[in-house]
Amino acid sequence: MQDRVLAFGCHPDDVEFMAAGTLALLAERGYEIHTATMTGGEVGSPALSRAEIHAVRLKEAAAAAAVIGAHYHYAGGCDLEVEYNEFYRRAATRIVREVDPFIVLTNPPMDYLADHEQTSLLVRNAAYIASVPLYDCGTSAPPTKRFPYLFYWNAMGLKDIFGRPLPLHCVIDVGAAMATKEKMLACHASQRDWLAAHNKMDSYIQTMKELSRGHGRLIGREHGEGFIQHRGHGYPADNILASILPGVCKELPVRGD
Ligand SMILES: [Zn+2]
Fold first, then answer.
1. DSSP per residue over 73-142, as a string?
2. From ligand 1's centre to the CA of 15, what distance in Å?
3. Dist. CA 117 → ligand 1 center (Å)
4. Among residues 125, 118, 57, 117, which one has the least CA distance to residue 97?
5. From the CA of 10, how far away is ligand 1's center (Å)?
6. CA 145 to centroid of ligand 1, rounded, Å
7. Has residue 202 got a pLDDT over 70?
8. Rounded mean pLDDT of the chain?
9. What's the CA-to-centroid distance between 112 and ligand 1, angstroms?
10. Spacing, Cα 79 to ligand 1 middle (Å)
């Protein structure tokens, strides 16, 4: 068994929209995949109560993970309430400690929902402080012994809040994993009607394919998933995705490189 990869998103379906193809490729290559959500998607329903949709969405997230043999974790947060506070810092760090991943994927620092942005900051922070022995996050898992590679997937719509493309470091050719990605996203059946009504998406599967095609165009392939790597102090800065997915991960020139 290879090392562990953690894809930690805000809502059930964030991972499947933006990174499931990459996870499927890594699972195929023997990596142990974990997915996690900060919230249980408690407000994502036009008809069910918060408790009902929460239960449905956790089941859907676990089913999506199971498609590639991944393990699903729920951090304990609530939809539209994610903030950089003690509860969420501890929750995020607990999951990083328990999984002890060598790669972490998460929401981008700038995206259309503040919930996504706060999750990004919390996961980034957790990836770092999971190694601090005196930081108590309420788990018996020991402090981690390494700083994981940290990548952000692209923003929804492939643009930041000012309408600009994010400075992606790489795009993964996920053409070979599209059927699996679609199967994973389709597990989130409760979101079909909700996203159609609230986000004006004709079909969430169709939207996912358009996003994947948008990334594919950047590398001259049919489908892709784009990532920006956190390369600041303390985090490993070589592109591990390019190393472990040769020929599949295409690095992009970034201004300032
Ligand atoms: Zn989301």
1. EEEEE-TT---SSHHHHHHHHHHHHHH--SEEEE--SS-SSHHHHHHHHHHHHHHHHTT-TT---S-SSP
2. 9
3. 10
4. 125
5. 6
6. 30
7. no
8. 95
9. 9
10. 9
Strands 4-9 and 32-39: parallel
Ligand 1 ion local residues (Cβ < 5 A)? 10-11, 14
Render pLDDT for 126-184 as a digit per residue (tens, 0 to 9). Answer: 999 999 999 999 999 999 999 999 999 999 999 999 999 999 999 999 999 999 999 99
pLDDT at 106 over 60: yes
Radius of gyration of the chain (CA): 17
What kind of architecture, by CATH, is found in domain 4-251?
A: 3-Layer(aba) Sandwich (3.40)
At 111 the pLDDT is: 97
CB neighbourhood size of 151 (10 A): 24
Distance in Å, CA 114 to ligand 1 centroid:
10
